[in-house]
Amino acid sequence: MHFDVAIAGGGPAGLSAAYAAASVGRSVLIVEQNNEIGSPTRTSGGSFINDLTELGIPQELLHPVHRLRFLSLHRSAEFEYREPIMCVMDVRGVYQHLAVTAAQAGATIWPASKALDVIKDGSNIVGMRVETRTKAIVKIGARVVIDATGYRGQLLRQAGLSPRFQRFGVGAEYDMYAPHCSQDEAVLVVGSQFAPSGYAWAAPWGRHRVRVGVGVIHPDHDADPVHRLESFVAGASKLGVNLEGAQPIEYHFGLIPSDMGETFVGDGILGAGDAAGHASTLVGEGIRWAIKAGRMAGTVAADAIERDDVSAAFLGQFQSEWLRRYGRNLRIANMLNRKISKWDDKIWDERTELLGLLSPDEFGRGLQTEFSVGWALGIAWAHPRLVKAGFDKVLGKLGIG
Ligand SMILES: Cc1cc2nc3c(=O)[nH]c(=O)nc-3n(C[C@H](O)[C@H](O)[C@H](O)COP(=O)(O)OP(=O)(O)OC[C@H]3O[C@@H](n4cnc5c(N)ncnc54)[C@H](O)[C@@H]3O)c2cc1C
Fold first, then answer.
1. Which residues line ligand 1 (CB under 6 A)?
2. Which of 217, 309, 316, 202 is nearest to 258 (CA)?
3. Domain limits at 114?
């Protein structure tokens, strides 16, 4: 069997790559090891309404959040949004929407099918071997293979292009029916009590459903989020998160690279999404980044086939364009994440007090990994204490010493 583009992984990156390549007439196969697209869920679905709307995600799949509460051990900062900028998505709904869009563009989708390994011709990647739903092993020839397998980056590693991630966000979460929990407010909790080096969260996504979880950066700290989740749920009411009468409907566990990828292209192969380190590592937020990366990867793959040049040199346009558009902000996000993952409770209390000085818009844009020069200048001008408190390096990266 032969396809122009063969994609491993039916998450947001793979599905978006499939859509982009199929919509310009390329034959595309996408294989997903699970039986259903979007299930099991391994993510909390927190994101930003403007980006997702621009990417064509239907509004009804996005639950807007009007207030964000940020808590450290003894301090809190609150941000109110009359016009919400953040949302928590119906994850399964969004991923299935992406799958339907790819199918409508002409992509072939094989659920319950696992990419086993890449097929090589010398150093060129020319396809992949797949174990299908019926346990048959088939060889799929492809002009371009896209690795969208998530944090494992399995095919990139087999192609000798391992991004060698050293740090991972490890998260455990309940998706709860919580009849008394606010559906307007998301809560982020930092500090050693629940999530040393990471944070805990309560994120409502409509119809009394709330995702309540704990994420920790390994190996920055060796805390186990699986156990910490129980103490977070038990202690939530003291933090103003009302879980009275709540019951878990789903349990989720997952990993996300907390390093940024800088190399994700080889002869005949591209990586997109978590496989390639495309998420913002600031708070481990990767869904909209995976959609953007997938679209860009699928477009470049289709161009390469059109030009009959699938060399790393041609496909490298994807890497250079990605880093040109987003590299600076993603590097700043990673620098900040490395810094804040080391903060103890005392520093977090001091910083939370300072964060409370920011306007909702200033805080929201930072959280969204939009570190523009205008944003930084505004903060430096209005809040010099924040600059003194250690954000000077960020300003340095933005060229504002
Ligand atoms: C606990 C947790 C909470 C998170 N919360 C958020 C959040 O609130 N907001 C946000 O934006 N991001 C969040 N993220 C990150 C986000 O989930 C990822 O960045 C995003 O899912 C990356 O998309 P992807 O398509 O690259 O990879 P994935 O979503 O991981 O998809 C990869 C797909 O490939 C499949 N696959 C893997 N190997 C194979 C194979 N060999 N053959 C076939 N299929 C294969 C997998 O089954 C999976 O479906 C969170 C992550 C974790 C772990």
1. 8-14, 31-34, 42-47, 114-115, 148-150, 154, 171, 173, 213, 215, 254-256, 273-275, 279, 284-287, 290
2. 217
3. 2-38+92-165+261-333
